[in-house]
Amino acid sequence: MKQYEDMKKNGVLLIHGAGLGSFIWDELIPLLNLPALAVDFPNRKKGDKVNLQLSFKHYSDAVIQQVEQWNIESFVIVAHSVGGCVGLKVAEHFGKRVIGFVGISSVIPSDGNSFISCLPFPQKVIMPVILKIAGTKPPKKAIEIGLCHDLTDMQCQSIMENFTPESKALFKEKCKAEIPNVKKLYIKLLNDQEFPTSMQEKMAENMNTQNIATIESGHLPMLSHTNELAKILNDFC
Question: Which residue numbers delimit the AB hydrolase-1 domain (predicted)?
């Protein structure tokens, strides 16, 4: 009975990364021992330009609104990639309801800074120029290399079909949120083509945790190494 009551009390909040959506967690959720809420950033599957005018606050507010409708007393935040920036703001908003924070190859800015502030040189200088010229939807080949290199053809096709360009503000604006004072875990992805391991190690340092797990996967372990990721998250929770 106690285990059942705990499951009603605690949950896992899943925050995806840029261009993606809650669909990336579909295979993982049934393997988790706690109820899970996979949230969506604004305007999934609604065209290439609909998010252009959104601010960073629009993203964090969208997630907060979804959590406020979730009948869970307290929860662990699991944030992937740029979802780490949004996750910090969500953690700040809900305060003591947040009982843990997990970053999966996630960007964790120090001092409330932006996604771009976390990039190594020279990417930190080049990224704003790329966003200005090319926008936030990478070419098909770049998505294949960065996100899909260890996925099945079907999984890669799903990523391509569902990829949603984000607002530049998601990457450029400061999250203005502190690192939560809760138990934390950083999951480092050893074959990640998006973020090098050196950057991930720096993000774990920014998160102020020495609790680090590793997976031999690319940027989307919830698809390529689902069982392994589920075990890590269940052990943490």
Answer: 12-230
Cα separation, 36 vs 77, whole angstroms: 10
Residue keyed to tokens 């120090």: 110
Query: Rounded to the nearest 10 degrees, what angle do helices 83-94 and 56-68 cross at?
Result: 50
The CATH architecture one would assign to domain 2-236 is 3-Layer(aba) Sandwich (3.40)
Amino acid occupying residue 7: M
Residue 47 has pLDDT above 90, yes or no: no
Strands (E), 30-104: 36-38, 74-80, 98-104
Residue 2 pLDDT greater than 50, yes or no = no
Question: Which residues face 188 on adjacent strands?
Answer: 214
Q: How far apart are CA 103 and CA 203, in angstroms?
A: 9
Q: Output the six-digit token pair for 231.
A: 């075990």
Residue 70 in contact with residue 39, Cβ under 8 Å?
no
pTM of the model: 0.93
Domain-by-domain residue ranges, the chain?
A: 2-236
